[in-house]
Specification:
It contains one helix and four strands. By secondary structure, the protein is an alpha+beta fold.
Length: 84
């Protein structure tokens, strides 16, 4: 039975956390690499948008790396990143 790894991206709109993107990966190594890259990219883009006085609320302010397989009835959280 193989695991599925997902990166879930959230942002806050109207006071609620909304999941706006889910990316799926087959291996933990691939998912961990993608997670680090996405966190780095969000931070870099947020900084650039702030420098240019542009809105950045469309960017993720939280990301989760989770794992599951067909026998699980839950998601196991591997990593979480929150801005701020």
């Amino acid at each position: 039975m193989s695991n599925t790894y997902e990166i879930r991206s959230f942002n806050t709109k109207e006071g609620k956390q909304n999941c706006f993107a889910v990316r799926t990966y087959k291996t933990e190594e691939e998912a961990q690499t993608a997670f680090r890259q996405r966190v780095r990219n969000v931070g870099m883009h947020r900084t650039k948008l702030i420098e240019h006085n542009m809105p950045f609320s469309f960017l993720a302010n939280e990301m989760q790396l989770v794992v599951y397989n067909e026998s699980m009835t839950w998601l196991e959280e591997i990593k979480t990143w929150r801005f701020g």
